[in-house]
Amino acid sequence: MQLIPRTDRQAANFGIIFSVIVSLAIIALGTFLLRFELAVEDPDAPDMFMALAFYKWQLADPDFWSRATAWIGFALHNLLVWLTIYWAVEKSSRKYTETLKPVNYWALGINVVFIILHYLQTAFFYDGLAQDIPSWTAQFTVIMMLFIILAMENRRRGLFFGRKIKFRQEFYRWMRDYHGYAFSFAVIYTFWFHPMVFTWGHLLGFIQVILVMVQGSLMFTRMHLNKHWVVLIEVLVLPHAAIVAIEQGMGLVYMFALGFLTIFIVTQMHAFRLKTWVKNLVYLGFIVTLLIIYLLIKPPYQVNEVIRIPVVEYGLVFATYGLWLLFARLLGQIDSFRVSGPPPTVPASGD
């Protein structure tokens, strides 16, 4: 059996297997963490960060090392991954291949080492970045990653039911050159924000962030562009968000589950060459589901919760494009706001 992956697909399979192993290790760690005393919400304490919801998984009495190990781990992890991205973009060939390059091995190795280090850091010190930073910051980094993916994939699958929105070529090139830095920060920040504790919400979240780390490590490989792999990583947010909402008991499960399902139906599923009758069947099933929920289970006026997340995600796509247009024009990088040509072609992804 070959232990070291040689191709991008083998590396992706390695990532899936490794995420399962890490998940089992997190479950095994469960009772060992009971020795830590966790913080209890004080309803009279001022909300300095507008955290909106109290984060349960933080120490009641943090010390220097519980904080320092989390922040140093995050900073080193992020910096080293950024260095691999810089090397891949500036110093190596941008040719997309199936064979892993040295920079891919370096990125995979760095991520594996720091995943193990965070596991040990949780076992001995417990706290993540959540001790010092409100939880909405981790949520926003994930939102940022998701709406940038929507914008980048527009040239392949469209944004609304397969219809492509016209963006300038320079916008795609800007996202191509810098999305790696933004995504790696988002996923590494989220990863170190949480201690590696066992709840089903945490477990699915860690599986997703590990797979995103693998995806980032496969830069300039064909698997990095594989539409099935990309959609898998995107849709994992649906069960994660839904389960977290159930565990928090705030009645938001329908908003998260149906909101991300709406994005899948409107955008993500159009990455595949589905027959028209299959799409129509999906549309019909979704409509029937909404009728059952908002006529028999919930009040009809609450149907607006279905579009809250899509409105935010799609709105941020256009807001980002608008801001990029403005700054690009002011800096003289473009001479007009108009779209002057087709989007750049996507390298062959082997999917």
Detailed description of the structure:
This protein is globular. The protein has eleven helices and no strands. α2 (64-91) runs antiparallel to α5 (169-193) and α4 packs across α11. It has one domain (8-38, 51-330). With 351 residues, it is mostly helical.
Q: Structural class per helix/strand content?
A: mainly alpha
* First-last Cα distance: 25 Å
> Nearest-angstrom radius of gyration?
21 Å
Number of helical stretches of at least 4 residues: 11
Shape: globular
Order of helices and strands: HHHHHHHHHHH
Average pLDDT metric? 89
Overall domain count: 1
Helix amount: 55-70%
Work out the strand percent: under 5%
Number of distinct beta strands:
0
Poorly predicted runs? none
Largest sheet: none
Mind sketching the topology for me?
Blueprint: H1 8-29, H2 64-91, H3 102-125, H4 135-157, H5 169-193, H6 200-217, H7 227-235, H8 237-248, H9 253-266, H10 276-297, H11 308-330
Helix pairs in contact: 1-6, 2-3, 2-5, 3-6, 4-5, 4-11, 5-6, 6-8, 8-9
Task: Compose a concise summary of this entry.
By secondary structure, this protein is mainly α.
Descriptive key words:
351 residues, mainly alpha, 11 helices, 63% helix
